[in-house]
Amino acid sequence: MRQTPPPAVVPEPITADPPHPVDRPLLTQSWLDLAFLHWAVDPAWVAPLLPAGTVPDILDGVTYVGLVAFRMYEVGWFRLPGVPYLGSFPETNVRLYSVDARGRRAVVFRSLDASRLIPVAVGRAAFRLPYVWSRMTVRHDGDTVTYTSGRRLPGPRGAHSRIAVRVGGRIAEPTALEHFLTARWGMHAELFGRPLYVPNAHPRWPLHRAELLDCDEDLVVAAGLPAPAGPPVSVLYSPGVPVRFGRPSLGRS
User: Fold this and answer.
1) Do 214 and 231 form a contact (C-beta atoms < 8 A)?
2) Burial 91-130 (b: 16+ CB within 10 A, else e)
3) Using 50, 70 and 90 to split pLDDT, how confident is the model at 5?
4) How many other β-carbons are positioned within 10 Å of the β-carbon of residue 200?
5) CA-to-CA distance for 100 and 177, rounded, in angstroms?
């Protein structure tokens, strides 16, 4: 039976800086050239898709589906240097927003398309994450960044995305919604039927306004969600941050 946090649990405050330090990282990496696209959705749509022990994280009565494209850069284990080739690749993920019984806000990945087969295999085997192997590119042309992906395996084969954004000015003070969508200090998942939480920490996001020039994708539908109705309600860009992941914690099933 799916576990859900009791109604009395209050989510942790939304903070622009990590609420808990990660002093002994399990993984290090950088996220670069990020485009954040978000659509508002009814929490009832996404609740059945979340891991045991979590419910949708809600802001002003709605939750969100995120399509986030970026470059992963030099993934490394512990305090060892990052791996230049195998640890650097484009990625595009479909994500949801969750809160658990301890009030920890996090993201839930419905799919993670990546262009390096070995990291895909490790992510699927070690953490049971829904990584898929895809052909992907990230290209700059002046202030325009274009992200493309075409799925290889596992399927559905042919699932794809093409996103192009024009980067605008730096955001001096992000709104409550912009903090809600980007300042996420953990990941919720399930591992062998048990709730899994993995914390992360990084510097405060440098966020920019962005204009969506092109969005041709079916990754959201391939991730088991309804097709987006209309354009995204939020489009943001960030040049990126270095990230540290802490040790996972497993709850009771």
Assistant:
1) no
2) bbbbbbbbbbeeebbbbbbbbbbbbbeebbeebbeebebb
3) very low
4) 21
5) 20
Is the dihedral angle over the CA atoms 182, 124, 221, 224 positive or is it negative? Answer: negative
Cα gap 17→112, rounded to integer Å? 25
44-95 tens-digit pLDDT:
999 999 998 899 999 999 999 999 999 998 887 776 565 564 678 999 999 9
Q: Is residue 70 within 8 Å of 240, Cβ to Cβ?
A: yes
Record the tokens describing residue 32, joined without a space. 């670069």
CB count within 10 Å of CB 88 equals 19
Both tokens of residue 217?
Answer: 């994708």
Q: Check: CB of residue 142 under 8 Å from CB of residue 134.
A: no
Minimal CA–CA distance to 191: which of 243, 124, 247, 245?
124
Count helices and strands in the chain by DSSP H and E runs: 4, 13
116: three-class secondary structure by DSSP? coil
Instruction: Tell me which DSSP letter residue 49 carries.
Output: G
3-state secondary structure of 160: strand
Interval 150-182: pLDDT, tens: 999 886 778 999 999 999 999 999 999 999 999
Quote the CA–CA distance of 199 and 20 in Å, as a whole number. 8
User: What's the full length of the chain, in residues?
Assistant: 253
The answer to whether the beta carbons of residues 238 and 32 sit under 8 Å apart is no
CB atoms within 10 A of CB 141: 9
pTM above 0.90, yes or no: yes
Distance CA 91, CA 136 (A): 8
Q: Are 114 and 86 in contact (CB under 8 A)?
A: no
